[in-house]
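Progress against Task 2.4 (sequence-to-structure conversion) is shown through the following example record, which the project officer requested during the mid-term review.
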Amino acid sequence: MNKQLTFIASLAFAAAGIAFAAESAEVKNIVIVHGALADGSGWRKATEILEKRGFNVTIVQEPLTSLDDDVAAMKRILDLQEGPTLLVGHSYGGMVITEAGNNPGVAGLVYVAAFQPDKGESLLSLASSKPAGSMDIKETKDGKYLYLDPGAFAAAFAADLPKAEADFLARSQVFAAKQAFSAKIGEPAWRTKPSWSIVATEDRSINPELERDMAKRAGSDVTEIKGSHAVFASQPEKVADVIEKAATKAGR
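Structure tokens generated for the chain above:
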């Protein structure tokens, strides 16, 4: 009987060791989700920095046709990763990682000047709770999609970028379906996964106070960076530092 108990205890110890190893696996995969009214090209500098530091970085080019479609696009990328993954979301991308982050392969979440919703909240409900200022948002002729007037883009989105870079972001923006902004979140992944938040202190697209409030509610580790809504492009080194720190801590 003692031998049987010893064998069972050994199996339990081995299983615990495997579980611990899985939880503490090194995080080298980083999947980035860009925000609405933008595309993934603005993340090039930050991506190159992270790759030089040994990370495998993938950027999700979500269609912005609906929150469900964007979460599905992220899950397709997650399916390609081998090992634990850190999700990074900018702006509306925070809505996507909050929903998709419940995937068991996700080790943690990083919100970069992003919405960090709780259950039942939408981008519209959050944005209207603490307005950031005047954004010249226009509708397409069919009334289904929204975009930021290219002439007003720099001031609202990328005030600290060189004019040529801000103009490129304005002209490469992906139009967002209205229903993506009104979709409500299910169970937020930050309730069960560690999270980090970058507050862009000069943000004119999302009120910095709203970014602080959402991060505090989620218990996120907060870093404040002086930068516009496009802080990932204007301060890529500092943003990469936060992502690297999150990957290191999520892997412990």
